[in-house]
Amino acid sequence: MAVKQTAGRDALGEFAPKFAELNDEVLFGQVWSREDKLSLRDRSLVTVVALMAQGLTDSSFRYHLTAAKNNGITRREIAEILTHAAFYAGWPKAWAAFRMAKEVWAEDAAEDAKAKHQSEMVFPIGASNDGFAQYFSGKSYLAPLSTAQVGIYNVTFEPGCRNNWHIHHAAKGGGQILLCVAGRGYYQEWGKEPQELHPGDVVNIPPEVKHWHGAAPDCWFSHLAVEVPGEGTSNEWCEPVPEETYKELR
Question: Which of 25, 60, 80, 163 could disulfide-pair with 29, CB 3.0 to 4.6 Å?
Answer without folding.
Answer: 25
